[in-house]
Amino acid sequence: MSPDHPPGLDLDRLCGLLERERPGLVNGPLSGRLIEGGRSNLTYRVSDGTSRWVVRRPPLGHVLATAHDMKREHRVIDALHPTSVPVPRPLLLCEDEEVLGAPFYVMEFVDGTPYRTADQLAPLGPERTRGAVLDLVDTLVELHAVDPAAVGLADFGRPEGFLDRQLRRWGKQLDASRNRDLAGIDELQAALGRDLPRSPAPTVVHGDYRLDNVLIGEDDSIRAILDWEMSTLGDPLTDLGLLVMYSTPLGLPGSPVSTTAEAPGHPTPAELTERYAARSGRDVTGVAWYTAFAWFKLAVILEGIHYRYTLGRTVGPGFDLIGDLVPVFIEHGLTTLQGLQEG
């Protein structure tokens, strides 16, 4: 199949659907390309030669519907689009699997750059890099300021017991990937369970909020937040903890896990936390727990990737290095929690 007709995207059927549901939107034959970089769901750029759109669908093959829920993704960006939170404009949700073989949705194409590594950020220079990352915090504050009920998302999740469910969920994920001893990971999980914080009022939570999940325009502003597949209603500080984790230098040159923290001008985790606190008014004194939980969550994700690699189920460069990263993430999590307990 040619690059302009990627797997999972039947352009003729898509064109027919758009002509029926959105007359006048498409002006000519469609071409499409898979956008690289997505972790799970597939993202395509589609064009009629004049206009561009984005199509999101689950991975090819059998998937768990709850893990790749296009209706939920579409619902949250549809609800947030009228607010000040920057998201692409949704155009169409299709739950008919006859069209592309799975539910999918179409949204507007937004120009911008997802910065995934410190090397990619470096040409911006220290001042622009600092501004972009601080804007990331400010945009998170805007997201967490949205009243879920006011935008029709009052039933978008179950905030009660959110942290306990999250910890148990990732514990189950870990158990499903266990095929070697991982020193300290059970200790980290147990310590997190003992010290569950009291959550603030629930908000819309992105679930994977970091620099490479936003598009930054030429004016250095955030044009759109992407990849809403893990969004729900829950504890907003889980988003902050993840952002702090991704803003902590790993000190591992050549690591297959992308991080921008080493870029010149990148604000420190403390600066990001202080800015979030000042702009949101939330108490962030317990952010270390949320950061340690983020380290645990990423350790589990990486161990899952390593497990699939050992079974021969992953192909491509860098997968052979993932397993060596897991102990590093565990150690960061334990160190972060130790600092909380000593403080």
From TrEMBL:
<feature type="domain" description="Aminoglycoside phosphotransferase">
    <location>
        <begin position="33"/>
        <end position="271"/>
    </location>
</feature>
<dbReference type="InterPro" id="IPR002575">
    <property type="entry name" value="Aminoglycoside_PTrfase"/>
</dbReference>
<dbReference type="Pfam" id="PF01636">
    <property type="entry name" value="APH"/>
</dbReference>
<protein>
    <submittedName>
        <fullName>Phosphotransferase family protein</fullName>
    </submittedName>
</protein>
<dbReference type="GO" id="GO:0016740">
    <property type="term" value="F:transferase activity"/>
</dbReference>
<dbReference type="InterPro" id="IPR041726">
    <property type="entry name" value="ACAD10_11_N"/>
</dbReference>
<dbReference type="InterPro" id="IPR052898">
    <property type="entry name" value="ACAD10-like"/>
</dbReference>
<dbReference type="InterPro" id="IPR011009">
    <property type="entry name" value="Kinase-like_dom_sf"/>
</dbReference>
<keyword id="KW-0808">Transferase</keyword>
